[in-house]
Amino acid sequence: MTFSTITLSSSRRRLVIIVLGLLLAFGIVLGQSATPAHANGAWGGYSNGNIPLSKMIAVPNGHLRIDAAAGYGSMNAAFKKRFGYELGITEAYRSYGTQVKIWNARYVAHSKKVKNSIEYKGKYWTKKKNVSVAAVPGTSIHGWGLAVDLNSHVNESGSIQKRWADKYGPSYGWYPVGNSFGEAWHFEFTPPKKTTTKK
Ligand SMILES: [Zn+2]
Fold this sequence. Notes:
Number of helices: 4
Low-confidence stretches: 1-8, 15-38
Number of domains: 2
Bound molecules: zinc ion
Strand content: 15-25%
Largest sheet: 4 strands, antiparallel
Order of helices and strands: HEEHEHEEEEHEE
Strand order of the largest sheet: 3-7-9-8
Helix content: 25-40%
Oligomer: single chain
CATH architecture of the largest domain: 2-Layer Sandwich
Structural class: alpha+beta
């Protein structure tokens, strides 16, 4: 191999890397604009439950998207001021693999359609008795790093902590969505509307 062919191939390789980099950057930008970061949806070009932890922020017992973590931080500060202790998290981001485990533990597969069954992977699933509902793998809001399961008595319906969280959570972007399916502890993040105006 002569010196000139080495130079040619390495410069070509460099060009290929630059083009790939530009395509990737462009794709990420397009991906984000196609899916506005309002609520509960895909972001950053990742699939549900397959988000690198490095793209999120660590919170107690897990990770959340950056804005969701910031909202939790503010909510936690207010909670601590009111109750004198931290607002605990049981679980935040959940990987696809974990969601599959939870699903398989709570639901039973049938080969034919039965009453109240949910279709998933070509089978019909019904929930076991006395277990909480679970989202079909790939659809949990935990898989986007935009849901938390809270403790510190927020997980107890009717407690003052739960009433406080339901009332004030939304001002930090955290909504008590779990109330609609019997999970007092489950909150989902929607970025609060910006109230500041540029002059
Ligand atoms: Zn949850």
